[in-house]
Amino acid sequence: MSTTTRTRLKGPEREETARRAAELYAQGCTIASVARQLGRSYGGTRALLLEAGVTLRARGGHRSKAAA
Questions:
Q1: What is the rounded radius of gyration, in angstroms, for the C-alpha atoms of the chain?
Q2: pTM
Q3: H-helix or E-strand containing 12?
Q4: Are the CB atoms for 49 and 31 separated by under 8 Å?
């Protein structure tokens, strides 16, 4: 079993990563997709998005109304 050690993002590197995460999320990527692209965890990526001032989208995909 292998483990990956990630360095803690600090200072300008953290700000740049948060900015990049916000850009990807604004383009329509999911948090999970952004996390994969940045090589970060889901929770860490979510935290970066919130720090960047991003308003997160509601959970789930498009739902069509059932015909009544």
A1: 15
A2: 0.79
A3: helix 11-26
A4: yes
